[in-house]
Amino acid sequence: MRRFNLASLLSEATRGHTGWGRQWRSPEPKASYDVIIVGGGGHGLGTAHYLAKVHGITNVAVLEKGWIGGGNTGRNTTIIRSNYLYDESAHLYEHSVKLWEGLSQDLNYNVMYSQRGVMMLAHNVHDVQVFKRHVYANRLNGVDNEWLTPEEAQAYCPPLNIDRSARYPVLGAALQRRGGTARHDAVAWGYARAADQRGVDIIQNCEVTGFRRDPATGAVTGVETTKGFIGAKRVGVVAAGHTSVIMERAGVRMPLQSFPLQALVSEPVKPVFPCVVMSNAVHAYISQSDKGELVIGAGTDQYVSYSQQGGLQISTHTLDAICEIFPRFSRMRMLRNWGGIVDVTPDRSPIIGKTPVPGLYVNCGWGTGGFKATPGSAHVFAHTLATGEPHPINAPFTLDRFRTGRLIDEAAAAAVAH
Ligand SMILES: Cc1cc2nc3c(=O)[nH]c(=O)nc-3n(C[C@H](O)[C@H](O)[C@H](O)COP(=O)(O)OP(=O)(O)OC[C@H]3O[C@@H](n4cnc5c(N)ncnc54)[C@H](O)[C@@H]3O)c2cc1C
């Protein structure tokens, strides 16, 4: 596989870019692997990369029922930040932001991580109190976050309406300057290419339909798929909104609900929006892509569903709020909208670790906000799969916490926010 660098770019430019070749192979599955990952999103592909790179485990397959990155990884609004409230979450998401900061170099693939700052608007006294609490808690954990007055917020983001008589007045904002956005497809493709280079088999159009277990020990011995049985010593399920369906086939009932979450983009315009702005109170999130489109995220539907589109009333409500907070966008046309299926836990924190079935591991529950966690989640999940024990960072995020009551309640930071 050729590396991307100035010399290879220049040499390809002189011959019409005809010599790059495929970025990853499309192999047929082998009879068995040391580790099988179910789900070819960013978290699954990243796990395979770190298994190979950090732990030297290369006899690995990633099984994807559709195409890689076709799930939530390729459908999200790409907001990255680490300003979560509790110590456990701050450590997990900050671990991820640190990996984001070196990811393009690690993968030799430009994931376009742009640290343009993520600003969370406070519209009422409750928001002000909650966000200030986050600022102080984040600082204690070494995570950057600062409080801005409405005027400072507008200076950072000029299109922001800070008129006090607005329906959603801006009383201030919390700003994480190291937050930002990345290119979602590139994350899936970069991890796929890097994992493939180290020998990982990425098998698309291969749906996992069930599990085989040892009758004596109950341990998982492989997976049934639409391409036949594939043996495995360990299996990691990383299937986002479909995790509970898959895990039920192994007899494990997951504390998850799956909701549609939707996003939409406007027609492209010149650079007009310098950062990311989130308004949790009105469920609206906005940034501008490098193509020029305004990327707008809405809230989840109120009902559970597996349809990859959201209700029109949800996006209408979001656009209503966007026009009030940024009046200059009121005449823009929306081009496309789409949805993804997000897997939501009762405490809005993920589950990363062992299950009651020996050899079966799960990484899920990222809900509306797991893109930002992709590198960190994949890194600690690879450790868990390789060693059979959690990494210190994911140790608190057990499935068992819903039995013991040791919840990590990030509802205020993650309920609908990204
Ligand atoms: C509209 C929207 C906006 C969002 N915005 C943000 C944001 O701004 N910031 C943020 O941090 N997060 C955001 N998220 C959440 C984020 O996208 C997800 O948490 C994250 O991408 C999950 O990654 P993943 O790799 O776990 O899942 P996915 O990318 O969904 O990958 C799971 C894969 O499993 C595959 N699969 C399912 N069943 C099977 C099976 N039986 N066999 C084989 N494969 C199977 C699926 O096809 C899928 O490709 C958003 C989500 C949506 C939908």
What do these coordinates show?
- The chain is of the alpha/beta class and 418 residues long.
- Helices cover 29% and strands 24% of the residues.
- The protein contains 12 helices and 18 strands.
- It has helices spanning 6-13, 42-55, 87-101, 103-107, 125-140, 150-156, 184-197, 243-248, 312-325, 374-387, 401-404, 411-414; strands at residues 32-38, 60-63, 79-80, 118-122, 146-148, 172-176, 180-181, 201-203, 208-213, 220-225, 228-237, 257-266, 276-279, 284-288, 294-300, 334-344, 351-354, 360-364.
- α2 (42-55) links the parallel β1 (32-38) and β2.
- α3 (87-101) crosses α10.
- The longest helix is centred in the N-terminal third of the chain and has 16 residues, at 125-140.
- The two termini are 35 Å apart.
- Bound molecules: flavin-adenine dinucleotide.
- Flavin-adenine dinucleotide is lined by residues 38-44, 63-66, 70-73, 75-79, 207-208, 238-240, 242, 246, 261-263, 297, 340, 342, 366, 368-372, 418.
